[in-house]
Recover the amino acids of this structure.
């Protein structure tokens, strides 16, 4: 199960702490999806990264069309950053998308998040454009998994959705849902 309802408060707190750290303030009204994660992400996948019994990261995707999805809610607790948790979570999301037939992944963020932009570029995302202070990315999944042999490393003791995995070699259970399904 990608997300457990009993973890809702811890997940919400982790994400909001990251936003407050970046922006210097918190406006919870701008995060309505975090009030009911199960319902909001019912069309997609929401992953929770665990390390030694502690929630240390999150990541989600939502379908945008039958062959494209958007990565959202990527967050790693401050004290666990730069340990590969974000990369492994992102890789697990991309693997799930690829195995469910999606062809590309898109994402957007504020263009002032230079470290995060570098993270996504190092992962393989390409910048497509800038608009109104945001930067937009795309990643072709077939090229990423079939041509680059992405991230074939050992995974250590990181757990995502309570399943131990080694980098991108994770099979997450779940069904592909059409962007038009209710």
């Amino acid at each position: 199960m990608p997300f457990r309802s009993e973890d809702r408060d811890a997940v919400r707190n982790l994400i909001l702490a990251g936003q407050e750290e970046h922006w210097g303030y918190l406006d919870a009204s701008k995060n309505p999806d975090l009030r009911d994660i199960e319902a909001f992400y019912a069309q997609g996948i929401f992953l929770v990264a665990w390390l030694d019994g502690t929630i240390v990261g999150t990541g989600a995707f939502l379908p945008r069309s039958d062959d494209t999805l958007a990565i959202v809610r990527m967050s790693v607790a401050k004290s666990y950053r730069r340990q590969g948790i974000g990369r492994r979570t992102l890789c697990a999301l991309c693997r799930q998308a690829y195995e469910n037939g999606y062809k590309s992944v898109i994402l957007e963020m504020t263009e002032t998040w230079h470290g995060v932009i570098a993270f996504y570029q190092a992962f393989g995302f390409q910048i497509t454009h800038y608009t109104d202070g945001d930067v937009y990315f795309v990643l072709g999944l077939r090229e990423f998994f079939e041509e680059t042999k992405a991230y074939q490393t050992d995974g250590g003791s990181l757990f995502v959705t309570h399943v131990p995995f080694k980098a991108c070699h994770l099979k997450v259970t779940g069904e592909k849902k059409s962007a038009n399904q209710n």
